[in-house]
Amino acid sequence: MHPETRFRLPAADAISLARTFGTPLYVLDEATLRDRIRTYQAALNELWPATSLTYASKANGTLALLQVAAHEGCGIDCAGAGELLAASRAAIPPSRCHLHGNAKSPVDLELALELGVGMIVVDSTDELEWLIQKGARTVPIALRINPGVGTSTHQKISTGHLKSKFGIPLLDGRAEKAVQRCQEAGLNLVGFHIHLGSQLREAEQLELGASALVEFAIEMMQRQSLDVRYLNLGGGIAVRQLQSDPPVRVGQFLKALFRPVAARLLQEGVMATLAIEPGRSVVAEAGVTLYHVMARKDIGDYKLLAVDGGMSDNPSPALYDRNFDVVPTREDECDTAFSIYGAHCESDLLFPNTMLPADSQAGDTLQVLCTGAYNSSMASNYNRFR
Ligand code: LLP
Known about the structure:
Elements: H1 11-21, E1 25-28, H2 30-47, E2 51-56, H3 63-71, E3 75-78, H4 81-89, E4 97-99, H5 106-115, E5 119-122, H6 125-133, E6 140-146, E7 168-169, H7 174-185, E8 188-193, H8 203-224, E9 230-232, H9 250-268, E10 273-276, H10 280-283, E11 287-299, E12 302-307, H11 316-320, E13 326-328, E14 336-341, E15 349-356, E16 365-369
Parallel strand pairs: 2-3, 2-10, 3-4, 4-5, 5-6, 6-7, 6-8, 8-9, 9-10, 12-14
Antiparallel strand pairs: 1-11, 11-12, 11-16, 13-16, 14-15
Helix pairs in contact: 2-9, 8-9
The chain binds ligand LLP.
């Protein structure tokens, strides 16, 4: 059994917070969050002279969290006008924000230009033409490249394969044509970006994408005389979703990813800024969700609990069949398997086969670990629960 690395509340605090604020309740631990960011910064500083850490705010856009990330020196990756406005409300200078998105609307792009964002990561030739037409020549842009690299993660969060909707394909020459178009139109193209997917455990897959990105950048320097100043390797580093999973060592992961890239860039004398933009691995393990049990039903041997939340505060069991560790606040031995359902008007099984004390019952407080990422940011108002 690996030692626990994820934040969890002591039982008494879980009960008291649940009573004070009501449930379902997201709780984020600032110390864990700062620690994760510092681990990233320290690892990056060892690997390359110019690095940049951008926090992907889609993972959790809570304003206080954005402030902590910015205070720790992160840039903020924003997936549209809403996330840009959230960063503004958190008093983060727009110059530290990057606009992302595969289908950005004129509203997203106009706001980014008006605010003066630090970078627009262009995802398609249509978007490029829009920027050219608007005469957006000063804003730094990076082209998101689709390297055609598949990853072993849930198919819904694999984004760098050949048929992905994201990025400009590398393989059929379209990416090079986009570079030419930027050069002709006098856009401020600073470099390239990839993002292969999320919850990626194997650095090797990211390395494949990174190597394709670097080779392309070198070719563009040589063939198109592009001054490559920025290369973004994306996010996607996995977290320890369950205690039974091995912990993910960010330092080792980044070493495996950066070393070959750094060696190749040095060989060619390219001193570009190397950037990454993690979301999940910054915040997932810093967050827990508290629920109250509302009902217990024993149907023969099948023991069922229902809590006062569900797919509206955590959609990932339904979307990605993701499992979570559930920690009771009762001290008795966890010797009985329960199926834990939510409160929505459907059979929303949240946490199957969860070991809890035999006398678990209505009124108990339960703590669910590793919910800091893609829970509050993906919450819905289904059944008008909030
Ligand atoms: N950069 C870009 C361009 C992205 O699209 C994403 C995530 C990230 C960075 C950060 O990836 P991370 O480090 O968090 O894996 N809702 C899904 C995850 C979707 C990921 C979306 N893009 C889930 O709950 O698994």
